[in-house]
Amino acid sequence: MTDTSEGQSRVASFFEFERHGTDIRTEFIAGLTTFLTMSYIIVVNPAILSAAISIEGYSDGEVFQMLAITTILAAAVGSAVMALYANRPFGLAPGMGLNAYFAFTVVIGLGIPWQTALAAVFVEGVIFMAMSSVGARRYIIEFFPEPVKFAVGAGIGLFLLLLGLIEINVAVADEETLVSLGNVATDPVALLALAGLAFTIVLYAKDVTGSIITGIITTAAAGWALTLSGVVAEGTLTPDGLPPVTYDITPLVGAFASGLRDVEPITFAIVVLTFFFVDFFDTAGTLIGVSQFGDFLDEDGNLPEMEKPLMADAVATTFGAIVGTTTVTTYVESSTGVEEGGRTGLTALVVALLFVASLAVVPIVAAIPTYASYLGLILVGLIMLQGVTDIQWEQSDWLIPGGLTIVIMPLTASIANGIAAGIISYPIVKAAQGEYESVHVAQWVLALSFILYFYVTSGGVVG
Prior knowledge:
- By secondary structure, the chain is mainly α.
- It has one domain (21-385, 392-457).
- The protein has helices at residues 3-14, 17-20, 24-38, 41-49, 60-86, 98-107, 114-133, 136-142, 146-167, 188-205, 211-228, 255-259, 265-293, 307-323, 334-339, 345-357, 362-365, 370-373, 375-384, 396-412, 415-432, 441-457; strands spanning 92-94, 171-174, 178-181, 328-330.
- The strands form 2 sheets. A two-stranded antiparallel ribbon has the order 1-4.
- Keywords: Cell membrane, Membrane, Transmembrane, Transmembrane helix, Transport.
- Belongs to the nucleobase:cation symporter-2 (NCS2) (TC 2.A.40) family. Azg-like subfamily.
- It is a multi-pass membrane protein.
- This is NCS2 family permease.
- The chain crosses the membrane at residues 28-51, 63-85, 92-112, 148-168, 188-205, 212-233, 268-290, 310-332, 344-365, 371-391, 403-429, 441-462.
């Protein structure tokens, strides 16, 4: 037996190819496919977080590059842990929706320093590691109402879709209607972004692998071409200037530690609680959604050995907070690799290695305008809407919790609020139907917990 064939045999044995009916070639193609479909996060995550994170002595472009590097490192470590520990074909990276919540709600909205927000992510990551080690997360997730499970993805999709449309100047604030159509016909950013979106949609409709990242890069290139040719003024469709190339991320690494100093206990507890709810149920929804797509769920709609991918998620989240990025989670784009036949952790390992290789293109990332990177939010948001087909709309105990979960997220700009609304309404509807016995006591506990969460976060005072 040659060294090559012996090595392949060891890989096949480690990842249990025979059990899952796969091979190295299939797993590699699946990993490449998953990476290409989720690689937009390298651009989009820094675009979102840079709205909330500024570092004295560094330009916006330099901070953008730092955030791109930490995004890549967190994705690589998370995917590697998923591969080697959980043996699941799921790619991990800083979560969409969770990064927006960090930037626009916690830091900008609540005025919490970004270092303290990272500290909150770190703390909830450690809590999740402890919970996952004893199987507590799995236990809670299995009592997650089914209508809410299947509605989470669509709700997050609507939320991301709205954020993307706002960033490309298509949706703008309006005093009378809250949101209205912007001056698209006279806005160069909106015109180019819509053209780029149309191009991206065409690629996606033709099943072109990597359609999102291709659309982002092409739109950015068009913006630079129009600027350099003098069609539009400098700074209109491109960044005002390109920062020097830097791989120094020391200002971000360990920044969470300073966020733990001089913390106001009650405020910090609320922030941790908020991240806990958002991360807990967003991860659960995405993990279940991808597993559903890959037919990994059992007859009860649960993922066997779920504690392992949940632990991978917890470890990745904790590591991500240490290096300076937001909550890391399983990506719904992993379904593309599963569709290509990926069934084991080798798929996720390929994703991890490709993320490491992408460190070489970080300097280019800083040249991509924000509006181009936000095209990824729009298309991902649209893709995530497919989850509505799994909801049994004809049944009121699905219609009401599922519908509330979906619409409350974008209307309140909060993933947690949408999930909370669905969880609170589920036992109420079931009880109204006289089906008391079908509601587990844990579901009542979750509902009451979220009522308290709403009370505290909306200004209520206990006592």
